[in-house]
Specification:
Layout: E1 6-9, E2 24-27, E3 30-36, H1 51-68, E4 76-83, H2 89-99, E5 108-113, E6 121-128
Helix pairs in contact: 1-2
Length: 133
Amino acid sequence: MTFYSKRPVQTKEAPGNTGPYSQGLVVGPFVYVSGQGPLDPQTKAVVSGTIEEETMVTFKNIEAILLAAGSSLNDVVKVNVYLQDIGDFERFSRTYATIFERVKVLPVRTTVGAGLTGIKVECDVVALQSRQE
């Protein structure tokens, strides 16, 4: 049986933790990214806007954590999406498609309506680590 250690991932290019959890973890060949929203990494303020704008900021934060872990959006295998208003599903999906348009194999995805407060979208991902550190 193989056991893997956990290595935390931390970058100033994404918002710091707002609670007792890691921005991301590398466990074996996988990178787990905690739920990210449309927060400015420097000010930690919500970048409020349309669902499209908030989605772009959210994935910019996710990408920063993935890069710090030796991964990328191309390596994402699973995305969990939480929308404040499930009525934003189609608009979110169009923006999401542009984010992943260059990815050869699209990740699996689950999208649910959630009781988010102050933000329109939050996402977490699981990715493969593309380079070993």
